[in-house]
Amino acid sequence: MxxxxxxxxxVHKRMQAGEIFLLLDCREPWEYQTARIEGATLIPMREIPQxxxxxxxxxxxxxxxxxxxxSFNAASWLKRQGVNALSMSxxxxxxSKEIDPKVPRY
Length: 106
What we know:
5 strands
């Protein structure tokens, strides 16, 4: 289970280092319009199975949601499909508290 979790600070460090990975936002479109992390790709959780071919299997995929539960479920499913997926702990809410307070909390 712990091998699926990545902390927001670690995601931020990877971004700062220029690491190539897909930041996958699995929230709903209205949530994405309310608050988003720069560079994230929106694929709502319910659409992930149909869009699996758009998700790279040759790089890490960091999934995030609002608080971490949907992203954990999505990352678990993606892992079973052969994707190197991680779930960002605490979601965008934790990101806003720890990394970028300009990202609105809701």
